[in-house]
Amino acid sequence: MPLELDTRRFFDPRRNGVLRDHVESRFLAWRNGRCVGRIAAGWRREGAPDGVGTFGFLALERDPAALAALLRAAGECLAARGARRLRGPLSLTINHEAGALVEGFGRPGMVRMPRTPDWLPAMLEGAGLKPERDVLACTLTLAEERHRARFAALLARWPGAADLRVRQLDPRRFGDEIRLVTTLYNDAWADNWGAVPVGEAEAATIARVMRPLLRAGAVLVAEWRGEPVGVLSLIPNLEEATEGLGGRLLPFGWLRVARVLLGRGRSARVPMLGTVRRFRGHPVSAMAVGALLDRAIGIAAARGWSAVEISWILDDNAPMLRTMARLPAPVTGRWRLYGAPLPRCA
């Protein structure tokens, strides 16, 4: 369950830079004086080129009428701002939590990966939304990984090995490094379905959230002949600490969180792994991904983590899914995004 503190901070413009670039509206559904659901609608302040507005932070009782009312409220709000299509569930953008879970129920939670009820997908379709895209989680069990030995052999035979380097983010130049990571991310993900660039204010928020996670985790940059070409982030799974707390840290949840932040958990997540577009289809890109994964797996092994989830991955990203199969990191979770056209406002 997400921490109540995290949800409140997400909607606090003083703490969340994404609200500089996006406007949000929140709605509650009530029946007989009792709240039965919530939803948030999101829209880019400068307007979305594709006309897509988003809905997310959806939580409700198993009640089709409540869902229909919430979606109608969000849709009408977005249409009034110029949106032509409704998409979700998304926590404002696809850069954050995405989708309704359709496969992988019963597995332990993973940081920033939504856990929605099994009845929600059918209810969304019953409300008139259509599936648009699936995003996947692939999980590597460290005891079964084959990547490091295989990659070492490939690297030894590759003529460009001496020109490829992987380094960790330099904490002494934290601000500059975050700007570099943001640039790499915006380039690497620019052609992806539903991509939304990360702005400076949002990047500053992500940096603030990430900084304590880097005590056990890492941000890695791959360089080819001194040029940054790829990026990977590895973070400890805070869901291990917050499980069973009912959304509250007090009185003893802080101790559990501190333990995970120090790397004493069981699992971790790779939420970011990509290479810049200029090298797509080039051996440099494939080797950079291999080198980033090699270093990340080494860090996970040193921490004693038993599993690393790589998530999320678009379901049509064949090259990345082939890489996952070789690790091996089979698909362990699937989330679905839904959409519907919005009527034009007069």
From TrEMBL:
Gene3D superfamilies to which the protein is assigned, alphabetical: 3.40.630.30
Cited InterPro entries: Acyl_CoA_acyltransferase (IPR016181), BcerS-like (IPR039968)
Domain of life, per lineage: Bacteria
Membrane-spanning residues: none
SUPFAM superfamilies, alphabetized: Acyl-CoA N-acyltransferases (Nat)
Name of the molecule in the record: N-acetyltransferase domain-containing protein
Species this protein is from: uncultured Acetobacteraceae bacterium
